[in-house]
């Protein structure tokens, strides 16, 4: 076997390995995003029950409930991109957090068995969503590293692979908790 043939075989093997690695990372990102999507769907299915239960009590927060309902409707539209889903997730997280804070101002509502059940279910979904987001972000980080690092970046460019967006926390959740305010309420 000639040296040039061995070199061609080695180069072909390296290209095949790089190609397969990139395809595997892309598929892993899509698979994990599907897991995130499943938990998001459960959360979106919970929202009508939550809004129906709290709307009787929370007349002053009608605009907040309307916003959550609108965001849920936007999230359930067909053919929205992953980036739009990520943006809607951040908005819905913020709005649901506001509803749960508002519930604290209504003692009858806070003690309502349905609301307590919905809060428990929502907390469980948020924990599942958090775990799914972490897995997705790790897969996206691996994917983004692969498409930006040499030598796989050349193959990724030829395959038209683009950077993927990670889930980030909303700006309101980045603020420090005011412990003094919590004890005064």
Automatic annotation (TrEMBL):
Gene source species: Sulfurimonas gotlandica (strain DSM 19862 / JCM 16533 / GD1)
UniProt similarity note: Belongs to the LemA family.
InterPro entries the UniProt entry points to: LemA-like_dom_sf (IPR023353), MamQ_LemA (IPR007156)
Gene3D superfamilies: LemA-like domain
Primary location group: membrane
Coiled coil: 115-142
Pfam families: LemA
Protein name, per record: LemA family protein
């Amino acid at each position: 076997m000639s040296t040039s043939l061995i070199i061609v075989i080695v180069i072909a093997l390296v290209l095949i390995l790089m190609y397969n690695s990139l395809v595997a990372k892309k598929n892993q990102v899509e698979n994990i995003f599907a897991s995130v999507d499943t938990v998001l769907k459960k959360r979106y299915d919970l929202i009508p029950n939550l809004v129906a239960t709290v709307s009787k009590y929370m007349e002053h927060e009608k605009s907040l409930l309307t916003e959550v309902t609108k965001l849920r409707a936007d999230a359930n539209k067909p053919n929205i991109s992953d980036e739009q889903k990520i943006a809607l997730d951040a908005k819905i997280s913020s709005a649901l957090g506001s509803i749960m804070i508002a519930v604290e101002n209504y003692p009858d509502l806070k003690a309502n068995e349905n609301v307590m059940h919905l809060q428990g279910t929502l907390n469980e979904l948020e924990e599942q969503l958090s775990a799914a987001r972490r897995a997705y972000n790790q897969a996206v980080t691996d994917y983004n590293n692969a498409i930006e690092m040499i030598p796989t970046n050349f193959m990724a460019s030829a395959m038209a692979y683009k950077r993927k967006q990670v889930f980030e926390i909303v700006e309101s959740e980045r603020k420090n908790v005011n412990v003094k305010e919590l004890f005064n309420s």
